[in-house]
């Protein structure tokens, strides 16, 4: 099926022939007069060959490719792609009695650029990052409730902050299907509250699930500091791992309240946990040397765009430098960057520079990434965003 036409400049179809899913504005020779933002368009090479179909929008990335050749982008398309995403999660054994939270759709990684869907029990939280996905939200919601192997009864749309503001779409968050059921979900046998109504992203950071499990295995008997704790995921995993004490820190009082609720949900009345609503750098500067022997640094993105890269790398050096200065001998540092603009090599160099300045002996135990339900499209390496290191500090 063909739609309104986009014609590329000569030679600009090469990346699409390698199945890269983006068409940049500089590659376009002409656009049909009646094309509007969010429309499905057909992309042609300069010699008139149909390459495929995708969503059009104004900006640097003008088309996000969805179907190659003459494939239609309709209800059947979304049912097929979402079922394929669900089958992958079933094969990953993420849908089971002790785990009902996971990412179902990870944009380009699931060949649905512009779309993110996280599942928490019977609720799917849908985020559109492009006008096209915003306009198709009804089709997507219908397909979600029909997936085999999943029992999604509620679809919450949360895209007020993720859609391009220049599109002026006036998107409102709210339920497309169903309504409030419960905000308690389960991850690896641990329960947590998810605030998809007012929380960051879709309400919980499911991308750290495997890394939280790894932390659990290092926690026995240790004094744990969870910086930028948000909803406390690392904290209650550390407690299950047998930590001697766990301190959670976040600048947001609301995040600290949710952390306390989540800890109480799993370990009511457990005196090992305390939470502090304070700036991370202030807390690190004021804490005693050797007070903690396991520290987690999981800050929000320091660089959301390339223009902020220099300052972000300085921030990572300072943050990790303070942790190297203060952590007890024999301590373990889990340190992360979720900034897509920061490469794995740049992050490592920032951490290595901080280690060198501390003049402490540091060894790499693990190099971490995003989990399998956040897959990276092999034709779109830009989809790798989460970087982490587990370090042993003498």
Explain the overall architecture.
With 394 residues, this protein is of the alpha/beta class. It folds into three domains: 4-68, Archaeosine Trna-guanine Transglycosylase, Chain: A, domain 4 (Roll), CATH 2.30.130.10; 75-188, RNA methyltransferase domain (HRMD) like (Transcription Regulator spoIIAA, 2-Layer Sandwich); 205-393, 3-Layer(aba) Sandwich (Rossmann fold), CATH 3.40.50. It is 27% helix and 27% strand. The chain has ten helices and 20 strands. The chain has helices at 14-17, 75-91, 131-135, 137-144, 209-218, 233-240, 253-266, 280-286, 309-326, 344-358, and strands at 4-8, 22-24, 28-31, 40-44, 50-56, 61-68, 101-106, 115-120, 123-128, 154-157, 174-177, 184-187, 190-193, 223-227, 245-250, 273-277, 294-297, 331-337, 362-368, 387-393. It has a seven-stranded mixed β-sheet, sandwiched between helices. Strands 2-6-5-4-1-3 form a six-stranded mixed β-sheet. A hairpin with an 8-residue loop joins strand 7 and strand 8. Helix 2 packs across helix 4 and helix 9 (309-326) packs parallel to helix 10. The longest helix is centred in the C-terminal third of the chain and has 18 residues, at 309-326. The radius of gyration is 22 Å and the shape is globular. The termini are far apart.
